[in-house]
Amino acid sequence: ELSPVRGFVDSSSYPSFDQYALSHRLWSPASDALVLPHVIDNTPHITIASLGGGPLRAIAEGSTAFWSMG
User: Fold this and answer.
1) In what order do the strands lie in the sheet with 57-61?
2) Residuewise pLDDT in 10s, the chain (70 residues)
3) What is the mean pLDDT of the chain?
4) Burial group, residue 20, by CB count within 10 angstroms (0-12, 13-18, 19+)
5) Is residue 62 classed exposed, middle or buried when 0-12, 13-18 and 19+ CB atoms within 10 A define those classes?
6) Are 8 and 14 in contact (CB under 8 A)?
């Protein structure tokens, strides 16, 4: 079960997502994965969710992440 990271949901980018959708990308450049923050053992982590399925892959501690545009 995913537990959302509170700072991400409450941040200025999430409530105004339509303003940031083109510059702050949650979808990978290949459109095959999402970068998502969630809580693991009471610690916020950045994870990759593959469109093809499988387990989430934690890549770092943190509350906000976006894919690089280039």
Assistant:
1) 33-40, 43-50, 57-61
2) 566 666 655 555 556 667 766 677 888 999 999 998 888 888 989 999 999 988 989 999 988 888 887 6
3) 80
4) middle
5) middle
6) yes
Structure tokens at 29: 């450049």
DSSP labels, the chain? ---B-HHHHHSSTTTTHHHHTTTSBSB-TTSSEEEEEEEETTEEEEEEEETT-S--EEEEE-S---B---
The torsion angles phi and psi of 7, rounded to 5 degrees, stand at: -60, -35
